[in-house]
Amino acid sequence: MNKVLLLGATALVAASIVSAPAFAGGRGKAAASDAEIQDLKARLDALEAQLADERIVNNTRIGRLEQVTDAVQWSFNELRPSIRSGDGRFELAFRGRFMFDLASFEQDPFDFGSGYGAVGNCQGTNVLCDQGSGGVFRRVRFGVEGKFFKDFIFELRFDFGGSGIEGAGVVNIARVGYIGIPGLRIHVGAIQPVMTLYDATSSADLTTMERAAVITTLVGNFGGDNARRGIEATYQKENFLWDGDNFVISAAYTGERVANGDHTGIPGNDESTNVLGRLAYRLYSDGTNNIQVGGTFSQVLNQDDNTFRLRERPEIRITGDRFIDTGNMTGESAQAYGGEFGMNIENFYLAAEYYEFSVERFVNGDAEFNGYYVEGEWIFTGENKRYAAAATNNNVAVFRGPSVASPWSLGGGTGAWSLHGRHSVLDLNHNEGVFGAATPVGGVRGGKQTINNVGLTWYMNSNLKMMGEYSMVEIERLNGAGASLDADFDIIQGRVMFTF
Q: Which of 104, 124, 137, 270 is the most exposed place for a label (fewest CB within 10 A)?
């Protein structure tokens, strides 16, 4: 700006000098020759041209500034590519994750009951006595998520992993939502409803390699899990009753999972439908330490084919075999309910959940089952779990993994290290009777599964994590004739996880 003013003043002075002879009369003509006048005019023309150039440059800079304000903004935070419009109304982020698992079963045929086959030699006749060790890509996910027109959100995600064998790729999440009302989120599509503390926790932030058996049984059979056709509303507010608290309530109406299909072509048969929800309340937080309680409820309104079957793996996905299984139960509705507790004090984390299931059978009354887990983690490098009060997905009111203070590098940082352990019980027996006798009328011999595991986790950085676990599995079960289906075995498993 100062340069422009200087040029303008110079041009004005030059113009005055050129016009001076008109007022000076004959004396000016004698003092200034025609050559001098022409020289001054040339200088004036040059100054005017330079002044015009400066104006063009300044206008261009202003234009560039306006373009920057409206330009698309790229970021690459923690390896996640993200795009954002200059006005903030549109956002898009790419997400990916894979988990590669390895496992070995330590089984002794003499630790299996007579119901599996010849005592000490059942591995020749029953696959459960000789589980195959190996590896599998537990999850291979890729997708996008973001915001459009400021108040709408979306997420599209596919999964190519699996249990026992990888898949060809299925819809994992496909949803759109509205967030225009502060604290409220409504979304519809193929969703993962907010259920329980552990299921609401992202698979990238799990304390153990697999969720507890009671959780996977609950969400898989009572309207939860991912890729559920449905609609959900969630309200969340921090400092709801006092400073440091966090209130979350969520309710959903869901149908079948996208990959499951349905049997609505059968006369008189409708797709399974469920009403479910979660209430969570953080009682205390000082920014580092957190204490939370909550509960989950689900009502199965209508069951596809009027058939219920509860069964579960021993908290491993290298193989799809189950040791506990209720078999088919005929009924139209069922309920599940229970509570949760979670807390972290500095770098120590503790969580527990208990749930009961009730299946309303057409005959022989309701069949009731239950399960629970208690787990803890000690991050001995000093980092602490991070509490996530809010989210645009279902990872709300949960405890996330630590923020690694010193990412690993050769000769540099160590990453974050932790020890974890869990006691997990799932009881699928109902009026099971006694050993040596047939199943009582109305009884269910699904079995009771108890798992104790310990493990070590290495958080190398925010994208890469390695886990190792040792699990001790105990099965208590009778077959229909009263023979023992008890089993005791150990599992050694590990995981490499990469996420962005």
A: 124
Reported CATH class of domain 101-134+190-499: mainly beta
pLDDT score for 425: 99
Q: How far apart are CA 226 and CA 97, in angstroms?
A: 15
Task: Kindly state the DSSP code that residue 223 receives in the 8-state scheme.
Answer: T
Structure pTM?
A: 0.84
Count of CB atoms within 10 A of residue 129's CB?
Answer: 22
What is the C-alpha separation between 232 and 187, in angstroms, rounded?
6
Give the residue ranges of the chain where pLDDT is below 50. Answer: 3-31, 263, 265
| Alpha carbon separation from 31 to 20, 36, 40 (Å, rounded) | 11, 10, 14
3-class secondary-structure state, position 387: strand
Three-class SS state of 219: helix
For 176, which DSSP code? E
Q: What is the pLDDT of residues 327-347, one digit of tens each?
A: 999 998 999 999 999 999 999
Query: Phi and psi for 41 in degrees, rounded to 5?
Result: -65, -40
Q: Name every residue whose Cβ is closer than 8 Å to that of residue 220 and which is 6 or more positions away in sequence.
A: none
Q: What does the pLDDT look like over 250-301, one tens digit per residue? A: 999 999 999 765 545 455 556 899 999 999 999 999 999 999 999 999 999 9
What does the block give as tokens for 373? 């887990």
Helix/strand/coil for 42: helix
CB 157 within 8 A of CB 172: yes
